[in-house]
Amino acid sequence: MTEYKIRPGTEQDIDFLWEMLYQSIFIEDGEAKPSRKILNEPDIIKYLCNWGRRGDIALIAADSGENPIGAIWTRLFDDTNKTYGYIDKNTPVLSMAILQDYRGKGIGTLLLLEMIRKAENAGFTSLSLSVAPKNPALRLYERQGFVKVGINGTSWDMVTTFHIKR
To answer: Sorting pLDDT into bands at 50, 70 and 90, what band is 37?
Structure first.
């Protein structure tokens, strides 16, 4: 079995995060992938533009050779700067992608569980996301307690609330 390592994202990972943002755009089988220019669209660029502000958290999955193969990140938004998956200003919006050759190997589960732990430790009480209902990742999110709370275009807004230990 191949070993995968999860590590905190750093400034040096920003180019890989942009690649993962592109990879996170769900395209149904048989449809053409959009041009990378889509990353400059206002509703897309805000997921990573000016990375490093309060609430920005990234984790990188790497293979045994330390090569990045997937990423998960969260970012806070507010009522004046909403995006897909936005719930409220205190709920970070989660994004995740795994390189095609590494999907279906449990890496997404590892990343998601670690991000939930990090978000809880940072004092957040919930996470939200946006996912296309035909995206296989939907099952992963549901297994980790995310529930549908709305529809935005063709995607579902989902949220999970943490069980706060007192």
So the answer is: very high
Share of the chain above pLDDT 70, in %: 96
Q: Are 74 and 94 in contact, with CB atoms under 8 Å apart? A: yes
Determine the Cα–Cα distance for residues 140 and 128; give it in Å rounded to an integer.
Answer: 14
DSSP 124-164: --EEEEEE-TTSTHHHHHHHTT-EEEEEETTEEEEEEE---
Q: How remote is the C-alpha of 41 from its chain's centroid?
A: 18
Q: Which domains occur in the chain, in start order?
A: 5-124 (3.40.630.30)
**How is residue 87 written in tokens?**
């719930």
3-class DSSP assignment, residue 71:
strand
